[in-house]
């Protein structure tokens, strides 16, 4: 497990160094912190699976006595660890930038935005991993873009449309009661959903990877 995590670290070392150098520069250029963090997550996913393909890592792992569950788990541990590190680094740079760069348009991170941004990053990883394991890094990028451009607005439209079609006053009362609870405790609700998504994502990625012919990857 540790050796696999080290492998991911070495493969992503240059990328991590670029992130550390570029984040302050992007703040100087007045780029929104959310888009910086979003870009870091997307870049890591592409970079990790790209180097797996380029270096033939999967073929090597197929010849070693390593459980595929361990391979997937190590990638998840490294990914969420890197996401947490990147988030903490971004938060530190955000505080320094707002203390010394008065021209910044974006407001400083608050407790709400901090937790929200971290959870969104985790959700993005959880949703993306099975896609990358199933389709590879090139097709996965296309699918992610389509999901962001089409899927997100579609879900919002379907939800809003379904609310307008509710005939039962009792059902409407239950729905809006749930929404009110979510509104009052957003991070508890979002945190629970995030944990469930991560567990489901890991189970699905493990299942996909176990059935995959690594010699053809």
From TrEMBL:
<feature type="transmembrane region" description="Helical">
    <location>
        <begin position="72"/>
        <end position="92"/>
    </location>
</feature>
<keyword id="KW-0472">Membrane</keyword>
<feature type="transmembrane region" description="Helical">
    <location>
        <begin position="187"/>
        <end position="205"/>
    </location>
</feature>
<protein>
    <submittedName>
        <fullName>ABC-type transport system involved in multi-copper enzyme maturation permease subunit</fullName>
    </submittedName>
</protein>
<keyword id="KW-0812">Transmembrane</keyword>
<feature type="transmembrane region" description="Helical">
    <location>
        <begin position="34"/>
        <end position="51"/>
    </location>
</feature>
<keyword id="KW-1133">Transmembrane helix</keyword>
<feature type="transmembrane region" description="Helical">
    <location>
        <begin position="140"/>
        <end position="161"/>
    </location>
</feature>
<feature type="transmembrane region" description="Helical">
    <location>
        <begin position="112"/>
        <end position="133"/>
    </location>
</feature>
<feature type="transmembrane region" description="Helical">
    <location>
        <begin position="9"/>
        <end position="28"/>
    </location>
</feature>
<dbReference type="Pfam" id="PF13346">
    <property type="entry name" value="ABC2_membrane_5"/>
</dbReference>
<dbReference type="InterPro" id="IPR025699">
    <property type="entry name" value="ABC2_memb-like"/>
</dbReference>
